[in-house]
Amino acid sequence: MNHAKKASEFIANENRTNWHDKSLWLVRTKRDIAVNRVAEWEELRELASQIKAHTLSKLDDYLLQFEKNALKNGVQVHWAANGKEHNQIVLDILESVNAKKIVKSKSMLTEECGLNPFLEKHNFEVIDTDLGERIIQLRNEPPSHIVLPAIHLKKEEIGELFHEKLNTLKGNSNPDYLTAEARKHLREKFLNADVALTGVNFAVAETGQVVVCTNEGNADMGVHLADVQIHSMGIEKLIPQQKHLGVFTRLLARSATGQEITTYTSHFTSPKKDGQMHIILVDNGRSNMLNENNSTALKCIRCGACMNTCPVYRRSGGHSYGSLIPGPIGSILAPIKNENQHADLPFACTLCGSCTNVCPVKVDLDKQLYNLRQQITQNGNAPKLMNFAMKIAGRVLSSTFLYNFSGKFARIAVKYLPRFILYSKLNIWAQKRELPKVPEYSFKEWYKKNNTHE
Amino acid sequence: MKVGLFIPCYIDQFFPQAGIAAFELLKKLGCDVDYPTAQTCCGQPMANSGNEEDAKKTYKHYVRTFRDYDYIVAPSGSCTNHVRKHYDNIAQSPDVIHVRKNTLDFPEFLIDVLKIESLDAHFPYKVGLHQSCHGHRGLKLAKSSELVGEEYSKIRTLLNMVKGVELINLDRTDECCGFGGTFSVKEPEISIKMGIDRIDDHLRNKAEVITGGDMSCLMHMQGISLRRKDKLRYMHLVEILNHT
Fold first, then answer.
1. Phi and psi for A425 in degrees, rounded to 5?
2. In 10 A of CB A15, how many CB atoms?
3. Are residues A407 and B12, on separate chains, in Cβ contact within 8 Å?
4. Most exposed residue of A227, A231, A361, B229, measured as fewest CB within 10 angstroms of its CB?
5. Could you tell me the pLDDT band of residue A452, with boundaries at 50, 70 and 90?
6. What is the second-level CATH architecture of the domain A38-153+194-287?
7. Chain A closest-CA separation from residue B107 CA (Å)
8. Contacts with A377 from chain B: Cβ below 8 Å
């Protein structure tokens, strides 16, 4: 319950905030350039939104169809109701093939399930192979962004981290050097891995295929080298047919980074000769969202565009949200799952609506955040003081007499109270802002004086 | 055509000059305009804070006050947007439907209803336009920077009718100022930082006056500017459109 507190900690370092804001705004700018080259961009968003809505409305059918086709391809399909079941399934697979070392390519789902600490507890070596993910894994902290997990760090901090953990030259934070060193380090991990695990961007019901989009090729590298491959996916990743895939790949990379397409779009269909391919279908609260109020948030394809455009996120940093997925979409997903713990998130927003406009699948994020505010208040999870103040405001503003009276009272108070009281610490507004200058009369008073009806 | 003028509560109490300009401008354009003095507020402060239930009485008060007018015109994109989009949780009587449909922000009323093509106004300054989010993205007063499509802007069209106005270009054309109602006191550090970043964009691009369709955003930025002693004036859009 403390986005404001964590945000104020992040923003205390103004240089970092400015740099964080500018870095993400640059990604937003690249996105704008890329989408403006697609004349039918708005139609594409609408189409994607409708495909997702349709799929979610028949999710049970499409899941069964997907399973049937994946089985036909020789894939072993597993169903996990929650994170615990998912982790147990992974553990069982690892033990059945005597694996010791696992390489992962980026998967927010396995973060959600807490897979890494679970496997480490069972003495497996789990290596995140996406460079950003590897950085935060070495720092032992959660991602601050779903596409750019280490965006909160400066290159000097990464140089120091690599010096400590990978024995790079002290004081060298040249990005080319650090990337080359990370590549050497990861290459060794790829070559020695027993099992490769990836997340999934899209799963095609018609073909039983899963599709993984990366820029570093780490999903391919892992899967091609290990005999056993595991793909963990949330059940909302389904799309009905192969022909729908192009709609989403056109939207995803442009929205996420301003690229026309990710460097690698890998289609995994069946196990390699003498190998195994597993797909784990994970619910973990998703089917509870298949209702009128919440299902639209399940359309999300995790591009991160809402974070890059969010003026609050850019200045408060991803960790201020205290939920795995930060920013506008995280402020919806987190309280739906655990309202009590994340009740502050829908209020950590000015309702500017920029997120809704950039969303490639047209999730109406600002409307959802507004609705969650109502729900949280009705459930008694909103801050008590604000609730009380709003009840009084509701009384005053529905009565002409009370409104006129308290308006006059407020103006007199602001006018005559001494500055040390008005600008005391209790007045949060005025800590770094002046109050408006008090006019001699309200508009209403002026009108009554000057416009007695002819 | 009977026009009811709605003056948002914070304009009424703290910025009467914007209300006066709004009233005079409508008169000047030949409207049969009336300001029903029973009016209070649109209810948005409660609703945006999650207390829609406590706002319903205010919604009904607004509908009662304005149901007899052909158009209800407000110098606020935010209040207008609230009436149009969020009065959906009270019974949709013919009065409610009428009031929701015909509550318009000034740029909408001047361009879409009155279809004005010129103004008798003069304002010889470099003006920076702050596009308040609810009018901008909610009422679609202009094409927002996120969307792909033809450029248009009702507010810029109006400002271009004012002789002498030199509209400056901003680095970020439509970023939020950080006011956000109770957000401004719930998250003061972020709110103020957002305000500072907006103001600095205007200063960098040599604005002398910042204008916009919502006094609430301007009040927030003006509060910061007064404290920082910025050389900037803040005026509501209607004050410039009414300036001779």
1. -60, -20
2. 8
3. yes
4. B229
5. low
6. 3-Layer(aba) Sandwich (3.40)
7. 19
8. 49-53
Query: For residues A129 and A180, what is the distance between their CA atoms, to the nearest angstrom?
Result: 14
- Contact (CB<8Å) A316/B190: yes
| Structural element, H or E, at residue A111 | helix A108-113
Long-range pairs for A37-43 at CB < 8 Å and ≥24 separation?
A38/A250, A38/A254, A38/B148, A39/B148, A41/B148, A42/B147, A42/B148, A42/B149
Within A193-288, where are the H helices?
218-225, 242-257
Residue A217 amino acid letter: G
Q: Which two tokens stand for residue B5?
A: 């003028």
A288 and B CB contact within 8 Å: no
Asked if pLDDT for residue A325 goes beyond 70, the answer is: yes
Residue A352, chain B, CB below 8 Å: the answer is: yes
State residue A424's pLDDT score: 73
Which of A351, A373, A394 lies closest to B57 in CB terms? Answer: A394
What's the average model confidence in pLDDT over B8-27? 95
Q: Which pLDDT score is estimated for B113?
A: 98
DSSP 8-class letter at B79: H
Predicted complex ipTM: 0.96
Residue of B nearest to A391 (CA): B54
Written as one letter, the residue type at A344 is D
Domain ranges (residues) in chain A: 1-30+304-382, 38-153+194-287, 400-450
Cβ-defined contact of B223 to A436 (cutoff 8 Å): yes
